[in-house]
Amino acid sequence: MASRIMHMAVTKIISEKWQIKDWNRFLLGAVLPDVYREGDTSHESHLKILIRGGGWVTYDLTSFKKRYGKRMTEDSLYLGYYLHLVQDLVYRDFVYNEYHWNPTAAGNIERLHNDYRLINSYIIEKYGLRNELSISDDFEKEPINALCPFGIYRLYDDLKSDFTAFSDGDIFFFTKEMADLFIQRACEICDQELQSWRTGTCFVDAYDWAWKKRAESLLETTLNTRELGGYRTKQGKMTKVHSLLRSDEQKQLSSGDIAYLLERQITTIIDMRTKRFTSHLPSPFANRPPFAYHNIPIEEGSGVPESMEAVPMSYMNTAGDINMRQVYQCIAHAPQGVLFHCSAGKDRSGVVSAILLLLAEVRDKDIIENYMMTKEYNAKRFALARKNHPDLDINIIIPREEFMIRFLQLFRHKYGEAKTYMSRIGVLPEEIEMIRGKLVTDTFMNTERKH
C-alpha cells in the first residue's frame, strides 16, 4: 500500500481542484485506513475480499459506497476514506504489475518501508505538506468505527515520525521518481472517479483492479480445491461463495478440512473418478456422515488425449458423457453446498466448472482464467508427471488458454448455451433453476472477506 505521506500528497492535490467541505476531515479520512490497531491487519479497514474463485483480492468499494455513500456526499472524512482505497488499488497495479515488486522475498517489505521513510522529506517539500491534522475528542463515536477498530490516537506519533527527516540507508526499490509518477497517476484516477461518482456512476472497477494472491488450495490435503464463487455475471450479480467447490482427489482428510467444509455447509461430495481409480484410492468421504458421497464415474476425460489438438474435443466428449446428467442433478438436489472432483481437478472438473459458469453467465475471460488457475495449483503434480512419465508430452496435460477457448467455441456451436445443453442431456427445467439458485446471488457483498 502507498505510504501515508503519498496519500497526503494526493489528497492535497485533489482538494485544490475539487470543492472539499472540510479539509481536516478529508485529510483524516485519507490516512484513516492505515490506522488500524496494533496486532490487527489492514484486511478490515481496506474491506479486502476474495473474488474470482478465491484466487484474487480486491477492496470492496461497492460495499463502502452502499454503507457510507450518503455520508461521502455530506462528510469529507468518508470521501477521503473512499479515495484512499482507490489510491491503494492504483498503487498495487503500479508497483506489482508495472514494476514487478515481489513482497514475498525475505526482507522486501521492510526495505520498501525504509524507502518510504527515505523519500518522505522529498515528498513533503515538493508538495508543500504540513503536519496539521487534528482529531476530535469524540472520534470513537464516529460511525466509521463500525468498520474496524482504529488505533486513532497513535496517529499523532506516526505522523510526527513521518515528518521527521530520515537518512538511514540507501534507496532499495521505491525511488523519488516512482513516487512522483504514482502521485500523478493516483490523482488522475481519483479525479476521474470523482467525476463519475458525482454523476451516479463509477470509473474504478474494483473487480478488474483486483490482484492475484498466492495459489493455495482451500483444503490442507489437496492441491487444487477452489471456489466457483466470487465471479461477476453479465448482469452484474456475483456467483455464490461456499456453495460449489471444484477439486482434485482427496487421499485423506484432516480435521481442518472437515471443519472447513462443515463450517461452510459443504456436505455433498461428487466423485467423478472411474472404478479403476476409486478401487485403488477410495474416497475418505465415503460412509462418513454428515457428508453425502456420490461416485458418478465420468469415463470420458479420464485418460490423456492423443495430442494437444485433441484436448478441446476431449472436453466436448466429457460434457457429453452418459453420466454427466447425474452430476448436474446431484448438484441441483444437494441440500447444501457441493464439492465435485476428479483426479487432478483439471479436465472433468474443469469442464463441469466451465459449464456451470456459463450457466451463471460469467464472462469467457473469467471462465478461461478459472481453468488456467489449475496450472498454478497443480504445479507440483505436473512436475511429478514430468519426472515419472518422461515419454509423456507434458504439453497435453498442462492447461493452455487455447484449450478452453476452443472448447467454448465447440460447445456454443453444438448447444448454443448452457441451459440448452443441460436440457439436451436430460436435466429438467426446474433442476436447472435449482442449480442457478446455488450459483448466483444478488449482491457483490456475498463474496468472501479475506482473513
Describe the overall structure.
The chain is an alpha/beta fold and 451 residues long. The protein is built from 18 helices and 11 strands. The strands form 3 sheets. The protein has a 5-stranded mixed beta sheet. α11 (324-333) crosses α18 (429-439) and α12 (348-359) runs antiparallel to α13 (364-377).
Summarize the structure.
The protein is of the alpha/beta class and about 450 residues long. Helix content is about 50%, strand content about 10%. The protein starts with a helix and ends with a strand.
List the main descriptive attributes of the protein structure presented here.
five-stranded mixed beta sheet; disordered C terminus; alpha/beta; 451 residues; four-stranded antiparallel beta sheet
Protein topology:
Elements: H1 4-17, H2 23-31, E1 48-51, E2 56-59, H3 61-74, H4 76-98, H5 108-127, H6 155-162, H7 176-197, E3 211-212, E4 226-227, E5 238-239, E6 244-247, H8 255-263, E7 266-271, H9 275-278, E8 292-295, H10 311-319, H11 324-333, E9 337-341, H12 348-359, H13 364-377, H14 379-388, H15 394-397, H16 401-415, H17 418-424, H18 429-439, E10 440-441, E11 448-449
Helix pairs in contact: 1-2, 1-5, 1-7, 2-4, 3-4, 4-7, 10-16, 11-18, 12-13, 13-16
Number of strands: 11
Overall pLDDT level = 93
Unreliably modeled segments: 445-451
Q: Count the helices. How many?
A: 18
The assigned structural class equals: alpha/beta
Tell me the strand order in the biggest sheet: 4-6-9-7-8
Helix content: 40-55%
The global form is elongated
End-to-end span in angstroms? 17 Å
Order of helices and strands: HHEEHHHHHEEEEHEHEHHEHHHHHHHEE
Instruction: Describe the sheet with the most strands.
Output: 5 strands, mixed
What fraction of the residues are assigned to beta strands by DSSP? 5-15%
What Rg do the Cα atoms give? 25 Å
